[in-house]
């Protein structure tokens, strides 16, 4: 086994384990793992490769929800189609942004994700919205916004997509989760293909990362059944980990301009 394969499989395993154990949020670690553990060639390659891995992971989970009847197909398809346009535009813009600046912005997104995971959630009573102009407009706006976020940073964006779908359509949580996975897979694939067109996807690492993610996800699902009573604690611990990684990225990003200033003196 090549030395570079082990970090890629292990990193994919970490993301898969967190997704299987916590049910979401784990893909936010894909980019920093690809950069700092696997050692891919730059921020853009990490984002493009991460987007492909996120897409594959979401598709595997989507299949399970679809079989269980958790998907509202018409809403899921429309949301995915509209949001994919946002992902394509945003990923095209992201390719033009300097890698260090893009990574710094990614660190800020990680802070938002970590804080969102720490924020207490309450189960809201919702009712399906009537299919009228207002509902369609809100759904389209949420789809474009979340698709753009996913495309720009190569992340799943489920922490925004799920509540966004609920607000727009009023569907129950389990249906929002199942339906969101089609959108996450579509956004990720569109972003990955856009990045691949510019040579920003490491296909070998992506396959290894996805393989590790499948193994880690299976282990996470098994562990989640045994640790279900401690899921809240695990979720908070993971949020702290995300915030720590975000802090490292932001500090590293702030150090780059200082280093450039010293070099030009």
TrEMBL record:
<feature type="transmembrane region" description="Helical">
    <location>
        <begin position="203"/>
        <end position="221"/>
    </location>
</feature>
<protein>
    <recommendedName>
        <fullName>Probable membrane transporter protein</fullName>
    </recommendedName>
</protein>
<feature type="transmembrane region" description="Helical">
    <location>
        <begin position="140"/>
        <end position="162"/>
    </location>
</feature>
<dbReference type="InterPro" id="IPR051598">
    <property type="entry name" value="TSUP/Inactive_protease-like"/>
</dbReference>
<dbReference type="InterPro" id="IPR002781">
    <property type="entry name" value="TM_pro_TauE-like"/>
</dbReference>
<comment type="similarity">
    <text>Belongs to the 4-toluene sulfonate uptake permease (TSUP) (TC 2.A.102) family.</text>
</comment>
<keyword id="KW-0812">Transmembrane</keyword>
<feature type="transmembrane region" description="Helical">
    <location>
        <begin position="233"/>
        <end position="251"/>
    </location>
</feature>
<feature type="transmembrane region" description="Helical">
    <location>
        <begin position="71"/>
        <end position="90"/>
    </location>
</feature>
<feature type="transmembrane region" description="Helical">
    <location>
        <begin position="6"/>
        <end position="26"/>
    </location>
</feature>
<feature type="transmembrane region" description="Helical">
    <location>
        <begin position="102"/>
        <end position="120"/>
    </location>
</feature>
<feature type="transmembrane region" description="Helical">
    <location>
        <begin position="174"/>
        <end position="197"/>
    </location>
</feature>
<feature type="transmembrane region" description="Helical">
    <location>
        <begin position="33"/>
        <end position="59"/>
    </location>
</feature>
<dbReference type="Pfam" id="PF01925">
    <property type="entry name" value="TauE"/>
</dbReference>
<keyword id="KW-1133">Transmembrane helix</keyword>
<keyword id="KW-0472">Membrane</keyword>
<keyword id="KW-1003">Cell membrane</keyword>
């Amino acid at each position: 086994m090549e030395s570079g394969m082990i970090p890629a499989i292990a990193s994919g395993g970490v993301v898969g384990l967190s997704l299987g154990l916590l049910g979401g949020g784990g893909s936010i670690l894909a980019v920093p793992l690809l950069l700092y553990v696997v050692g891919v060639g730059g921020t853009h390659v990490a984002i493009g490769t991460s987007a492909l891995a996120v897409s594959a992971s979401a598709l595997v989970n989507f299949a399970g929800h679809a079989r269980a009847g958790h998907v509202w197909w018409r809403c899921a398809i429309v949301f995915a189609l509209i949001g994919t346009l946002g992902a394509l535009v945003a990923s095209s813009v992201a390719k033009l942004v300097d890698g260090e600046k893009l990574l710094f912005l990614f660190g800020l997104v990680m802070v938002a994700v970590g804080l969102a995971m720490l924020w207490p959630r309450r189960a809201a009573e919702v009712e399906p919205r009537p299919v009228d102009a207002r509902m369609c407009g809100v759904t389209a706006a949420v789809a474009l916004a979340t698709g753009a976020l996913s495309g720009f940073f190569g992340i799943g964006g489920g922490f925004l997509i799920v509540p966004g779908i609920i607000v727009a359509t009023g569907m129950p949580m389990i249906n929002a989760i199942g339906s969101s996975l089609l959108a996450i897979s579509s956004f990720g694939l569109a972003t990955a293909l856009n990045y691949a067109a510019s040579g920003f996807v490491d296909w070998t690492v992506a396959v290894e990362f996805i393989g590790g993610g499948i193994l880690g996800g299976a282990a996470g699902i098994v562990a989640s059944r045994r640790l279900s009573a401690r899921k809240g604690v695990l979720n908070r611990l993971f949020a702290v980990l995300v915030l720590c990684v975000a802090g490292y990225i932001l500090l590293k990003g702030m150090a780059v301009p200082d280093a450039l200033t010293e070099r030009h003196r």
